[in-house]
């Protein structure tokens, strides 16, 4: 009896079924991963940004709580102290702290300490002049106040560390989501390459079509993600299929989210100029570049004159509007390649590249005059002036911190000599005109 053998068509059928099955699994995996990538991007847009905004509000409220505490701890006006203590109470019970019980407890403990400081200050300031043992009572109240102020200083450090922790947590949220999306795109790329290999084995034409409509777009999407990570531009081709369109759309939404996060991490939320941390990073880079190319570089320290009066007399809303308009007018005057940063409160710094001593002084004078004239024409804010201190790079040993320190000394000289003027640092006094 002859041995029975399978016909070649059976083998071909089995191979075809195997290829179809593997191909089906690959397509299914791509669909699942594409959907998962889209869900991650959607989650990043719908959940991550609100969470980061919540963290930023909490950090900003912590900073405001510190300021209110300082005004209570060292204030001399009873009515103002009561208002600041009330503002501290409102801040301490803001819902923005509810996401972390430890932070919530810390801010409420801070309020209790502020309340104790207000009571101690009130007792000290309201002690009758004809009190029988006034001197002894004053001494006891001063000791009590000093203890509370010391405790407040320690608690301020706790609040500052909490601010840093909140900002770090917000950054970690984005990093985790970005890592998941990157891993998903890498898996899509692997699955696509396996599909290419199988289709090439069966039919060259099918492999070519698969590469054109699947592998290349997925590779482009992966490269786009890497470009987004490094802050570079990317370009995606128009998608022919829904799956690739979903991936491209997810990449575009991720790019938009990253831009928003970068803006929130590097700019001041009120004025839109660079925050202190990012300004210092830019200044370090520009100073290194100026040293290597032996190019001129200058730093300007600027402070709004009597800004506290604006907040006290017109309210913080008017003070905020004043800062916004001030930075807007400054940006309109700055040439390309120069940077404006808010170092804190009403204090700003300007980094000028490719500016010699005379050009720096002229620009500073232009800013001073412009701000005075512009504010005088406004009805929504009071008229204000600014004082400016200038320091230029002179030596290879100059650092950003040393230049800022010297510019700050020049600023202090401008304010102590009458305000509303530009003062140059002593090292540059022989090359710059004196205002």
Automatic annotation (TrEMBL):
- GGDEF domain: residues covered: 295-427
Has keyword Transferase?
A: no
EC top class, as a word: transferase
Domain HAMP stretches? 212-263
EC number(s) per UniProt? 2.7.7.65
**Regions crossing the membrane:** 12-33, 188-210
Reactions catalysed: 2 GTP = 3',3'-c-di-GMP + 2 diphosphate
Cellular component terms (Gene Ontology): plasma membrane
Give the keywords, sorted: Membrane, Transmembrane, Transmembrane helix
Which terms does the record give in the GO molecular function aspect? Answer: diguanylate cyclase activity
Q: What CDD domains has UniProt attached to this entry?
A: GGDEF (cd01949)
- PROSITE patterns per UniProt: GGDEF, HAMP
Q: Does the keyword Amino-acid biosynthesis apply?
A: no
Cofactor(s) of this protein: Mg(2+)
Please list the GO biological process terms of this entry: cell adhesion involved in single-species biofilm formation; negative regulation of bacterial-type flagellum-dependent cell motility; signal transduction
Q: What name is this protein filed under?
A: diguanylate cyclase
Q: Please report the organism this UniProt entry assigns to the protein.
A: Oceanospirillum multiglobuliferum
